[in-house]
Fold:
Amino acid sequence: PQAKSGDEEDNAGLARKKLRLSKDQSAFLEDSFKQHNTLNPKQKLALAKQLNLRPRQVEVWFQNRRARTKLKQTEVDCEYLKRCCETLTDENRRLKKELQELRALKASQPFYMQLPATTLTMCPSCERVATS
Structure:
């Protein structure tokens, strides 16, 4: 006969079957979770009694459900931040390009053309630039 590994021997007497909930039990726990995502001891006992489970099973189910909720929220937040980062990166690229173009334009123009556009007005009779 094949020798058992240390793990198998240790768990032979302790191995418990994974808790399988009925559809009704699951639905009831989900509804309870929607109302309160944490339970006080009284609520835990009442739920366990109602669902024919041990209080510890109800407690662990709620802990796992909170962990799944937190993980899902973290994934959603991460996706949102990725999109924000992409948007900001694009905007940054666009602004850098615009800045380069403006610097090139400034270097190639005479001084009077470098004044802010809002202060420049064209004198219609002589078509010269006049500052207002």
